[in-house]
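Researcher: Structure for this, please.
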Amino acid sequence: MRKSLMRMTLRQLQVFNEVCDLRSYSRAAEEMSLTQPAVSLQIRQLEELVGQPLFDYVGKKLYLTDAAEALQRASRDIFGRLENLDMQLSDMQGSLQGQLKLAVESSAKYFVPHLFAAFKRQHPEVNLQLTVVNRAQVIRRLSDNRDDVTIMSMVPQDMGLDFMPFLNNPIIAVAPPEHPLCQLERVRLQDLEPYTLLVREQGSGTRRACEEYFKEKRVHFTQTLEVASADAQRECVIAGLGLAMLTRHAVSMELSTGVLQELPVQELPLQRSWCVVQAKAKRQSPVALAFAAFIRAERAQITALVERFAGHRQPPANN
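Model: Predicted structure, token format:
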């Protein structure tokens, strides 16, 4: 091993990782309560130890060099091992402590806090770092080994992943109660075609599942309106801008209060499952193992919990 690499400090690697994540010296300095010259100095010293530049500027954008990408993978492994050590030492003392890095698809964000709260009642010294992203971003994070556990549907089969379905995730069609289709006892999927469909952004798991299903059923929507989140979809439907395909969990409060109505579509709901996902090759921390074991053992209770969680949400304000 190069002797220069042995002179790296954990602080330098912390600063480096922050710059990698934020793609900005100034934002990294702000996040870490440092001055920008201090961040620049740490990176410059690190480049001297590595013997290669770590970042390139193209225009005003910061890009990682090949050396930076290699260093980023190594540094994440180092910090991951230190976190595991901390958890193992806590476990030896008879208590489970540490942080769970959990990434979830955006449509799961409604019930995951309640799921973690139930887990934390059993392990009060475990903290949560929750990242909410769309499916495409989840897959990138899995590739980069960023998280301990991932919750998603439509798990990719070619990435060496262990996964366990634990909760039904039905996708339904919703409309405002005054919509003409709400007055019918039964409609077909094709009956929705003349209306505007509100769709999620590219990369959304719900959008991908729906597009694949529409293709299978030979259904084509000529009028679509793209919105960036399930929350925005829900509000646009309430405003009368169109119909939407949403997970039932995401609109449970609106359905129960009558703000939205589930359309009686014969071919729906589209059944999917939420899965807890972990990389096969990754050495799992005690906290990650405990969280997966909790879900495995408490699936029936989790289903009941999710059915109750809508009571914790506030109905949308009527302005």
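Researcher: Any notable elements?
Model: The mean pLDDT is 86. Residues 66-92 form the longest helix (27 residues).
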